[in-house]
Amino acid sequence: MKMFFQWPQATAFGERVERLGLHGLHFQHVGLCERRAWMYLHSVNFAHWNERVQIGTARHSTSHLRDHSVAGLFGLAPDRIDWVAKIVYESKGTAGAVDAVSDQTAFYAVMLSIASGETWRAVTTILSNRRQREVPLTPERLERLWQASERLEALAAQSKVPKAKRIALCESCSLASFCGYG
To answer: What is the tally of structural domains in the chain?
Structure first.
């Protein structure tokens, strides 16, 4: 049975995402740290030099085959899509940062829902324990995404790096040395 996607802000959300060139990681980053999100928005990214990211990338690429049906999707880079069941999957190494990771996974499902007019499901796969976590597109989740898109728009307009407080994530962040909390 088809479930049609209905969200009053869908058109405005999609237009903002396109105008700003937003991707799933933007939504994860803004949920973690606004400074990190600002840097990602302004193409300041040292992830490829970070040993933790390198190890995670290697694990990620060897733990499952990449779904090539996602190639060419503008702004969407989920790990796997079940086109028949309308489920988008995002894989993560550990089960941490639940809300931020869920926002990233939900972003993919929302964008596919907007594009198709049908409601997609979002699932985060946790590689370390081989479990899956469903991310329902509830009104609360959609509101989180809307607010995150507004915050990302404001951060994109800022010319200066926003202030940030030291948080637990700082120790493992790929931007820690550049940020000043490394």
So the answer is: 1
